[in-house]
Design goal:
The protein is of the alpha/beta class. It has 2 domains: 9-50 and 299-402, Alpha-Beta Complex (Aspartate Aminotransferase, domain 1), CATH 3.90.1150; 53-292, 3-Layer(aba) Sandwich (Aspartate Aminotransferase, domain 2), CATH 3.40.640.10. The chain is built from 14 helices and 13 strands. The protein has helices at residues 21-31, 53-61, 76-88, 104-116, 131-139, 159-164, 188-201, 263-275, 281-284, 287-292, 297-301, 306-320, 349-360, 386-402, and strands at residues 37-38, 99-102, 122-127, 143-148, 170-176, 204-208, 232-238, 251-257, 324-326, 334-339, 362-363, 365-366, 377-381. It has a 7-stranded mixed beta sheet, with helices on both faces. A 4-stranded antiparallel beta sheet has the order 9-10-13-12, with helices on one face. Strand 3, helix 5 (131-139) and strand 4 form a beta-alpha-beta unit. It is globular and about 60 Å long. The chain starts with 20 loop residues before the first helix and ends with a helix.
């Protein structure tokens, strides 16, 4: 094999194991006829979740006006609907000019970092993280600095340790709340502390809130933008999770806070948005209906709702296990499950995930995929039917018992 077409060296430190080697092996097994329970990705569609009918109709009814490019920031009705949501949450000073629609939040993560970073600039990212954040910082010539969110703290950050990681090169801090992969929902006091640190050091706050309405029990989602005043805050959300419309590829980022000092940065965002012309137009026509209509997610996350009951199966199964531990997820659609290394010394998350796939045909995401410095965790999605999850944990127990 020659190096005539070798990939860019910029990819050397980039990984996305959620769709990596294990997922490729799962595809091979499926082609051989095996049924794989795919718990590695939070993709509601394959598990029977439908996009609300009103959203589908809104998109279909506007197809005739969705065949051309739209404004680089997105169609006005979609952006204005996002503004109305922000105003309802108590976030002042935002107009449609401060909203950018994207091909999912993923594209906007890349654009917002590309518009900000110089080579060597540092971005504080939680560990565990959603690995796209780390990858996007790296690809845009920045340096990802991971601040620990430990299980013994309920996966919330230690603000004193966080402040110690701020240097003159730090430009931004990323907050993922409700959290992927852990399911943590940050307390108001934690978010206030992060806001004050960002303001004191003039850091841009990137608040990934794609699971904003997906909370359980008494958990309270607090929009970080309601707490950030004296620096720039970028809040991300979209249709993929709460509205079960991953394939529509519709996300948005809203800028708030110290907008007076952000003029040149927002101009850079406008330039980058223009270079990619616009985001998916048909899907944008579902935004106004989604944000303004009946919020069906509420039924799914309450007792009796499918997401609530599936999460309960996970909680019960871990409690009954001789090997597993879990900080109760209070939001999102995931569980970040630990393995007791006193029971299984030398446990390795990647090796376990491979054995689970090969022996029991269950695909999970190893914890180190989320940039942890420990290797005894793995992530599953809680999207399957409760009965399927019960069967999954029986299969896990068989593999785990073979590792003792």
């Amino acid at each position: 094999m020659t190096d005539a077409f070798k990939p860019s060296a910029a990819l050397n430190e980039v990984r996305y194991e959620i769709r990596g080697r294990l997922a490729s092996r799962a595809q091979e097994l499926e082609r051989r006829g095996y049924e794989i329970v795919q718990l590695n990705i939070g993709n509601p569609g394959p598990f029977g979740f439908r996009t609300p009918e009103t959203m589908r109709l809104a998109m279909i009814e506007n197809l005739a006006v969705a065949e051309g490019y739209c404004h680089q920031k997105g169609i006005f009705p979609a952006r204005e609907a996002v503004v109305m949501q922000q105003q309802d949450r108590g976030i002042a000073g935002v107009t449609a000019e401060h909203v950018f629609m994207g091909n999912g939040v993923s594209e906007l993560i890349d654009l917002t970092l590309r518009a900000l970073l110089e080579p060597g600039d540092e971005v504080l990212i939680p560990s565990p993280d959603y690995p796209l954040w780390t990858a996007a910082v790296t690809l845009n010539q920045g340096r990802a600095v991971h601040y620990p969110c430990r299980p013994e703290r309920g996966f919330e950050p230690d603000l004193e340790l966080l402040e110690q990681q701020i240097t003159p090169s730090t430009r931004a801090i990323v907050v993922i709340n409700p959290n992927n992969p852990t399911g943590a929902v940050y307390s108001r006091s934690t978010l206030e502390g992060i806001a004050r640190l960002a303001e004191a050091h003039k850091l841009v706050v990137f608040s990934d809130e794609i699971y904003d309405s997906m909370v359980y029990d008494d958990a309270e989602f607090v929009p970080l933008a309601t707490l950030v005043n004296d620096t720039l805050c970028a809040s991300f959300s979209g249709l993929s999770k709460v509205y079960r419309a991953c394939g529509y590829r519709v996300g948005w980022v809203v800028f708030s806070g110290d907008l007076d000092e952000a003029g040149r940065y927002l101009e850079a965002m406008d330039l980058l948005a223009s270079l990619r012309l616009c985001s998916n137009v048909p899907g944008q026509w579902a935004v106004q209906t989604a944000l303004g209509g009946f919020q069906s997610i509420a039924e799914l996350v309450q007792p009796g709702g499918r997401l609530f009951e599936a999460r309960q199966v996970v909680l019960d199964a871990v409690a009954a296990s001789s090997y597993l531990t879990l900080v109760k997820p209070r939001g999102s659609m995931y569980a970040f499950i630990g393995v007791d290394t006193a029971r299984i010394p030398g446990f390795d998350d990647n090796q376990f995930a491979l054995q689970l796939l090969e022996q029991e045909h269950v695909l999970v995401a190893p914890g180190t995929s989320f940039n942890t410095d420990y290797n005894n965790y793995f992530r599953i999605t809680t999207l399957p039917e409760p009965a399927v999850l019960s069967e999954v944990f029986e299969r896990m127990e068989r593999v785990l018992s073979g590792l003792t």
